[in-house]
Design a protein that fits this description.
The complex is a heterodimer. In chain A, 37% of the residues lie in helices and 25% in strands. Chain A is built from 17 helices and 17 strands. In chain B, helix 6 crosses helix 8. Classes of the chains: A alpha/beta, B mainly alpha.
Chain lengths: 366, 244
């Protein structure tokens, strides 16, 4: 889909990008990462010809981009940047409509597309379409920026630290949303970041750059488990094992857990499980409400009187979580297992510390 | 700063209408000035009615300011483009020079070439008002955040599209401020046009100075002052409509 061949960019006496070759397959998310000044943004901007390479060729779908008019090329490539760059004098709808209007879409089609995209990025069209950028929070602006980049449904998306300018919590939400959107739209994405966790989270493949050169181009798993040289090894850091956990979904590690209804009599707790010490407590809808310790169980009465009530959002993880999040919850709560709930807080099962340990051991040896 | 509301526009329109009505009422002028200056034989300039003088004045300002805008804004745009960037220093120097040069001197130099009347006055006013327009156009365009222009190009806008859709709308407020300053300067400076027969509100002032008639001077000065204030408010309102 996108192929860079021996691309070099020289500024006066500094070589920003040095004989850089890379291939990104259709529908793949490739994250360009490296320390500041490694040439990752320059590389990105050469793809849509905001910067012209000094030498080398860039092909999109086999076509040499230097033969395409820059404006024409850019109209077919979505572009999202860290500062978002929403136009302050235009409403959210007009901002999103920028490229469709440059392409002379008719008004109805543009309006439909704007609504569609606002829905896609999780913002209510009726509420947001007429707002102005100054009325948006940082996270909302970033989402509009992504919507604008996707407006004309370009097959390729270039993103330069698109989640860089927001607080960590918002960034995580935006990343999760990006993963969801990407599953839906399947664009070929090249994303620049300096945040390794972000790269690991989002990338199908990571291209690590240093001093204008490509150092390693591989899946996150491989980069974490087999760094190709000392630079990559140092770059990914000493918490590689933890980072690797964030690539593993908990889905395959969820095991059946024992639970009792909050309105049941205490003796049912004994029946629910006879070896385990803790039992999760759910309400009639199957939603997690607390847990109960069998060793401190009173003789009679109902479960309701003996449970430790919990806020599910504090102790449970969603089915979409990674092992890293599960581990983090366990360490935070001092538990040896963490309950897994669905998006309606219904108890699905649990993940245990032992399972995470074995998962780490497996990937270590693989 | 806030955008002007409908009530701001209504208030301004009412003030302008009141001003025009007063200017059109010559009898009122005569009666009021006679009350203030009973000793003067004549209290308003006999050459033309106050309204005619005002309209002459407005015409001078309108013509010279239009030329200033039509030349100043494109000039400011051109020297901030790649093709004209080399001319930026010389253009700013020349326009500053145009303003440091006293308009009365321009008139003195223009009369032998262009003769008396409206034409040399318009030339002097044009040169005098050019700097604020050019300077503010340059400043406004240079102040457009670079990442917005980058986003515009990145999305596929051509240079002209980025200029028209992004750069000019975002610098409109600053450009309009330059135009406002230029117009206000012109309203004041257009007074001197009367010295070489261009008419306008300067005529009764010059006549009043020559004949030592204070009523004449007031007939010229007062409307000019009100005109400047109203024009300033009108252009400020337009300018504030471009606050984002």
């Amino acid at each position: 889909m996108i192929r860079l061949e021996h691309v070099t960019k020289v500024y006066d006496i500094t070589i920003a990008v040095n004989d850089f070759s890379l291939e990104v397959a259709k529908g793949e998310v490739c994250v360009l990462i490296g320390p500041s000044g490694c040439g990752k943004t320059t590389t990105l901007r050469m793809i849509n010809r905001l910067i012209e390479p000094t030498s080398g060729k860039i092909y999109i779908d086999g076509k040499d981009t230097s033969q395409i008019k820059p404006e024409q090329l850019r109209l077919s490539i979505g572009y999202a940047i860290q500062s978002v760059g929403l136009f302050p004098h235009l409403s959210v709808a007009q901002n999103i409509a920028t490229v469709p209007e440059l392409l002379h879409w008719d008004r109805k089609r543009v309006a439909r597309r704007v609504d569609e995209l606002l829905e896609l990025v999780g913002l209510n069209p009726r509420e947001y379409a007429r707002k102005y950028p100054r009325e948006l929070s940082g996270g909302e602006a970033q989402r509009i920026g992504v919507a604008r980049a996707l407006a004309a449904d370009p097959p390729i998306l270039l993103m330069d630290e698109p989640f860089g300018a927001v607080d960590p919590l918002t960034r995580e939400r935006l990343q999760a949303q990006f993963v969801r959107i990407q599953q839906e739209v399947r664009k070929t994405v090249i994303l620049v970041t300096h945040d390794l966790d972000e790269a690991i989270r989002l990338a199908d493949r990571i291209a690590i750059m240093a001093a204008g050169k490509l150092v390693q181009h591989d899946t996150p798993e491989t980069i974490l488990s087999r760094p190709s040289n000392k630079f990559v090894h140092d770059f990914v850091g000493t918490d590689r094992a933890l980072k690797r956990l964030s690539r593993i979904s908990i889905t395959n590690f969820i095991r059946q857990s024992s639970s009792v209804n909050v309105n049941a009599p205490v003796k049912e707790v004994m029946a629910a499980c006879d070896k385990c010490r803790w039992v999760w407590v759910v309400n009639d809808a199957g939603q997690l409400v607390g847990w109960i310790d069998r060793t401190t169980l009173p003789e009679g009465g109902s479960v309701k009187e003996a449970i430790v009530q919990v806020k599910p959002e504090e102790i449970a993880v969603l089915t979409s979580a990674t092992l890293r999040e599960a581990l983090s919850r366990m360490l935070g709560q001092g538990f040896r297992s963490v309950p897994v709930v669905d998006d309606k807080v219904r108890l699905i099962g649990e993940v245990t510390l032992r399972d995470i340990e074995s998962a780490t051991a497996e990937t270590e040896t693989s | 700063m806030r955008r002007p509301q409908i009530k701001d526009w209504v208030l301004l329109a009412a003030l302008i209408a009141a001003f025009a009505t007063l200017m059109a009422n010559t009898h009122l002028w005569v009666a009021t000035l006679r009350l203030l200056f009973p000793a003067e034989a004549q209290v308003i300039h006999p050459r033309a009615s106050p309204l005619t003088l005002l309209l002459e004045h407005l015409a001078l300002v309108a013509i010279s300011s239009s030329i200033t805008i039509l030349i100043g804004v494109p000039l400011g745009i051109w020297v901030t483009r790649r093709s004209g960037r080399n001319f930026l220093p010389i253009v700013t120097d020349l326009t500053s020079f145009g303003q440091t040069f006293p308009p009365i001197a321009v008139l003195a130099l223009a009369v032998p070439v262009l003769g008396f009347g409206v034409l040399p006055t318009v030339v002097a006013l044009f040169l005098y008002g050019l700097m604020p327009v050019v300077r503010n156009t340059i400043a406004g365009l240079n102040a457009v955040p670079h990442d917005l222009i980058d986003a515009a190009y990145g999305m596929g806008m051509s240079r002209i599209q980025a200029l028209l859709r992004v750069e000019i709308p975002l610098s409109a407020r600053v450009i309009l401020a330059g135009i406002r300053i230029s117009v206000i300067i012109n309203i004041g400076t257009a007074m001197i046009g009367a010295a070489i027969g261009a008419g306008g509100l300067g005529s009764p002032i010059i006549a009043g100075l020559v004949l030592d008639n204070l009523a004449y001077i007031i007939e010229g000065a007062l409307p000019a002052a009100v005109l400047a204030v109203l024009a300033d408010q009108l252009l400020t309102n337009v300018e504030q409509s471009f606050v984002y």
